[in-house]
Amino acid sequence: MVTKVLLGVIIVLIIAYICCGFRIVPQNNEGLVETLGKYSKTVKAGFIFIWPLFQRIRKVPLALQPLEISKYSIITKDNAEITTSLTLNYLVTDSYRYFYNNTDSVESMVQLIRGHLRDIIGRMDLNSALGSTKEINDQLFVATGDLTDIYGIKVVRVNVDELLPSPEIQRAMDKQLTADREKTASIAKAEGEARTIEMTTKAKNDALVATAKANAEAVKTQADADAYRVQKMQDALSKAGEGYFRNQSLDSFNQLAQGPNNLIVVGKDEMTDLGKVPALKKVWDASGKNEE
């Protein structure tokens, strides 16, 4: 009877022992099986069996994992201090290397990325670093891509989220920005005033030129009219006979006789020329009226 009870107990213990050896490795995970503390094999996701007390299994996730690297300071080439923070995505490509080749592969990867970022930004001045985030991301990705393979990790994406100068530098940059804006506004205002003066001067010059052209045209027109009247006068006088001028001379003497100064001495040959003066006046007045 005792033997049967003992046998039953042994059978129950064996069943319990075997049941304790069944494990489940989830999807996107690998299992590292250790026998008496030593690595023995790698198993894929699914239902597996290990020997309890002699073996244990360590599960390593293979899915893509995000990681945020907290803010830390970096000195640029021109000795300016800036604060940066990064985010990255990585996945485990070799679970054996990831778990056994380093006590903390993720931390080692973070230190490696920080070191390369310091090296990249340390070779740039402040303005170049602040305006070259994409180039920094590309260089950092290339620099860390192959080196993290020793940890069994692959960095899929790395991104510099922000590059912030120190508060002192930020204040100096704000002052410089304000000064540049004021300078730009002053230049724009001066250029506008210069343009206004230029346009006003041009308008005045154009008006003066137009006035001068109009005056010149008026003078030319008046000169043409005077020339025409002189020509008409000459034509009229050339057609007048000697008798006309004698009559004009008699009228001239009559007018002189009626005035207070009625004494005039002229030669015989010049008496006829006196008639030409009133005749010339009549012809001139007549030509003026015709033009009007």
Question: How would you describe the overall organization of this protein?
Answer:
The protein has nine helices and eight strands. It has 292 residues and is α+β, with helices and mostly antiparallel strands. The longest helix is centred in the C-terminal third of the chain and has 73 residues, at 167-239. The radius of gyration is 58 Å and the shape is rod-shaped. The protein has three domains: 2-61, no CATH class; 65-165, Band 7 domain (Tetrahydropterin Synthase, Chain A); 240-292, no CATH class. Strand 6 and strand 7 (81-92) form a beta hairpin. The model has no long low-confidence stretch (mean pLDDT 78).
Topology summary:
Elements: H1 2-20, E1 22-25, E2 29-35, E3 38-43, E4 46-49, E5 55-61, E6 65-75, E7 81-92, H2 95-100, H3 105-122, H4 126-130, H5 133-145, E8 153-165, H6 167-239, H7 242-258, H8 271-274, H9 276-291
Antiparallel strand pairs: 1-4, 2-3, 2-5, 6-7, 7-8
Helix pairs in contact: 3-5, 6-9, 7-9
Shape: rod-shaped
The stretches of 5 or more residues where confidence is low (pLDDT under 50) are none
Average pLDDT rating: 78
Question: Number of DSSP strands?
Answer: 8
- Helix count from the secondary structure assignment: 9
CATH topology of the largest domain: Tetrahydropterin Synthase, Chain A
CATH homology group of the largest domain: Band 7 domain
Cα separation of the termini = 162 Å
Give the biggest sheet. Answer: 3 strands, antiparallel
Q: Under the CATH scheme, which architecture of the largest domain would be assigned?
A: 2-Layer Sandwich
Range of strand content? 15-25%
Alpha carbon gyration radius:
58 Å
- Structural class assignment: alpha+beta
Report the top-level CATH class of the largest domain.
Alpha Beta
**Pattern of helices and strands:** HEEEEEEEHHHHEHHHH
What is the total number of structural domains? 3
InterPro entries: Band7/mec-2_domain, Band_7, Band_7/SPFH_dom_sf, Stomatin_HflK_fam
Pfam families: Band_7
GO molecular function: peptidase activity
Organism: Lactobacillus kefiranofaciens
